[in-house]
Each structure stands twice: as C-alpha cells, then as structure tokens.
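Notes continue from the previous slide.

Worked example: a multi-chain complex. Inputs as given:
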Amino acid sequence: MAVVWIARRHKLLQHGAAKPLLFMFCLLPLAWLVYAALANQLGANPAEALVRKTGDWALRFMCLVLAVTPARVMSGTPALACFRRMLGLFAYFYVSVHLLSYSWFDMGFELDDIAKDIAKRPFILIGFLAFVLLTPLAATSFNAAIKAIGAKHWKALHKLVYLIAGLGILHFFWMRAGKHNFAEVMVYGAIIAALLGWRLWNRWATVRRSVLAKPVVGTR
Amino acid sequence: MLIKTDSSGFDHSVPSEITPQGIYQGRRDLIRLMATGTAGAALAGWAGRQALAQTVAKPGKLAALAGAKSAIAGAVVLDKITAYQDATSYNNYYEFGTDKADPARNAATLPIKPWSVVVEGLVKKPKTFTLEELLKLSAQEERIYRLRCVEGWSMVIPWVGYSLAELIKKVEPLGSAKYVEFITLADHKTMPFVGSRVLDWPYVEALRLDEAMHPLALLTFGMYGEVLPNQNGAPVRLVVPWKYGFKSGKSIVKIRFTDKEPRTAWNKAAAQEYGFYSNVNPLVDHPRWSQATERRIGEDGLFARKRKTLMFNGYEAQVGQLYAGMDLKKNF
C-alpha cells in the first residue's frame, strides 16, 4: 500500500507539468505585490511596504529551499530534489527584488545615499553581504557550471547557503531591534535553526549508523 | 561661480517666497486641463480654489469638533493635506502595537470616557480638569501643521485645539517651574502592549516651559473637523509641529510642572539616539539613519524622490529664537 503511494507520489512529482506549475506558484507573491502596488492596496506608505514584503518573501524562500533536503530524506521522496534548484533561484530572485526595491523606492537609486546608508545602518550591510554571497550560488546553478567546477567544489560552494540564511536572520533581527519587535524574527529564526539543526543531527545519525554497522575489531 | 543643478532647488531668503506644492500643483493641473480642452467646465472650481484651498472635508466618522481660523503665525501651512485614511491607518502608538497598522486595529478599547487631566507640580493653581472643562477652556482653532516622524516620513494634518499656553496661564506656573512633563495613559487592561519591553510605561514626554508656552504648541482635541480617533491619541494630546512626532504625547492624563529636565520615554530607551529636544533638523542625523529627507505620505509616490526635510520642520521663523545660541548638534 505504502509502496504504491510512494510510487504514485513520484509519478506526480515527475510529471511534466510539475515544474511549470511550481514556477507559476513561485511567481504568485510577486504578481500579488505588483497588483497591490498598482491597485493602491499597500497602505499609507507603499514604498516601505514593498521593501518589507519583498524581504519577507526572500526569507520565506530561503526557508523553503532549506526545507527540501530534510523533506526529501524524512519522507523518502528523492524526486523532491528536482525542485531544489528552482526554489533556490527563486530565493535569489526575491532577494534581488528586495534589494532593488530598497535601492529604488527607498533610495531613489542615489548611489551616494546608498553608500552612506550602508555605513549608517549595519543591518543594511549584512543584507547586502547576504546578496553578494548568494550571487555565485545562483550563477553556478546550471549543469555546465557544476561540471566546470566539479561536483565536489560545487557542493562546498553551495554550503555557503547555511551562512547566508544566518545572515538573513541577523539582518531581519537587527532591523526589528529598534522596536524590540522580535516575534516574527523568532519564528523565522526557529524555522531556519530547525532546518540547519536537522542537518547536523542527520549527519551525526549517519555517522553513528555507519560506525555501528562496521564489524567491531578486537572482540572475537 | 556657483554651479547649481536641478536637485539643489532655489534659494529663498524668506520661506514665504516658496510656492507651496499645493499651489504649483494646482497651476500645473490647470495647464493640463487647458491643454486637453476641458478647462472651461473645471475652471470655475479652480478659481475658487485659493479660497477653498485649506477647507478641510469632514470624514464623517466621529463627532464634529469645529475649529475657528487661527491668527497665529505658522498656524496654517499650504501643503496638501494628507488623506484622513492615511492619517488614521499609519500610526505610531506603541501601547497598541509597534506595527503602523496596529493602533487602528487595536485602539478601539481605549477608555476615553470619562477622561480627566491632572495638572500639578510647580503651579499656583493645581487642578484636575475634566475633558469637558478642557474643551471649553479656550476657543478651538484649526491648525494645519506638518508632522515629521523621526523615522523619516511626514504628513500634513488639520488639527483642532488651542495653544497649550492657554491652559498653562490658567494654572499659573511658579517662578521655579522650568519644564512641563506630559504623562500619558498606561492601562494594562485596555492597552495590549503596555508591559512590552520597548519602552518604560507610562509614555512620558516633556518640553521646556518656554517651548510649551509657544503659541504653536497645540493642546489638541480633534483633527479633520472631528474629535480625535483613538489611534491618533484621543481624547486629548499634544502637537508640537517643529519637533519629531514622538515628542507629542497621545492620550494625556497628567501635566506636571518641574524644575528639573524630566527623563522622557525615548530618551530613557536610547539616550544617544533620542535627545530631549528632538527638534526636526535635517543637519543632525539620527545615529542610524539620515534625517536630511523625508517621504510625504500619500504624495511622494513610489518612484518619487524623497523631499528635503526643513529646519525645525519649516517653523524656523516662528520657533528659531527659542534656541538662539544653542548648539543644536549637542542638544539634539
């Protein structure tokens, strides 16, 4: 029964429409934001609302892409791995839209002002650093790039995402620190911590399993 | 030779030379109408615009509170008035939550009836005023003020109230009184965020006595021709237009005259970021962001540049002398 269900699930996930469908879903937040901006649904300060909401979505996509591996292993659904790249690229996409919103709507593309703002507000620097670090990951997300730099190096490079997720949370925490308003920060922080924590636990469990599986030497 | 670009604007020796945005926008609208040939029908309305420019449309949400035209210098700016919807849905009133949309959602519970204000401290005639007594204490005036938030946004709001000086004169401060402290309501039962760690409660603000006596400092009971909505500080608040918005305490329950500079709420929370004076000053940045520009809510669109912040929020001519000889960088 379970086997049938797993097989069916795999078929569904590998269906030709699965990826285009996910792609459309990932674009929904942006579509909604554009609609809300045009329809004047973003409240009294639409610029601020756009900067904040695109930031929220960047964080959400970071959580989503970090959830792929735990979900794949825990549910025994290898097919989930095919969606990781797209979710990762969408995370980068929303981070970029967030940075663009800030530079455009908050700073009017005044590079001078942006430079001064980064110096004044360290949390902007942290956010910018996260964007910079995420860029090589996005740039090496096609097969030829993986081949060119080698799977081993590629894997090592993409481990950066753990650090970037931490920077994202720090950026959010610091931004909210002015008002001691940490409720949402804690939610995102807990999700990211759980997803990274699972990886540590999983590695430890794997190591232990392989140690236990080996024949113990010296006790004949 | 002085080289100027579009972004440096014009220099004016006196602020009154500056054409207010509402006026030049009107001229542009007229030109646009003429160009499209629809001027004829619309012209009549425009001709009356100057006279009507600052007539405030009542939103029809709350009890009316009329204010007579004010004769005080600086009492009526000609900037375009912010939409009532924006002014009542984008608020900082931390007792009801730190998100700007929270106060409008949560402030319905504010117990505004009955209300009284204790006036005490270094005065000859301390007294507890009921709200009804306060409302009748002096003639209500309409004051159209700029409001500049320390966070970098601004609005233009038609307040209704009278100069705080009227109340101060009634209670006769002693010679030793140097400061006026405003204590606002902190009620755990009705204000869900009193007790949050953001600030020390109750929220306390203060002015120097001469600042409080300035005719522009407004004891405020209404806005847009109606009584104050709860999220804007009902039933009585202060409005000090040349200072950042947080200096204007909402829902005031006590006014105390003292001889020492009172510790104010934001100053206690972060003394290096929020000074006692907190006059609007584009030349003195907040440690964490620039104060040189601001976004006018509802007017400066998504793609518009932010506008330049004015010294003392544009009230320099009226209040500048209060700070003569003071180092405004030190006394921020």
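Summary box: Chain B has a mean pLDDT of 89. Residues 177 and 259 of chain B are 5 Å apart (CA to CA).
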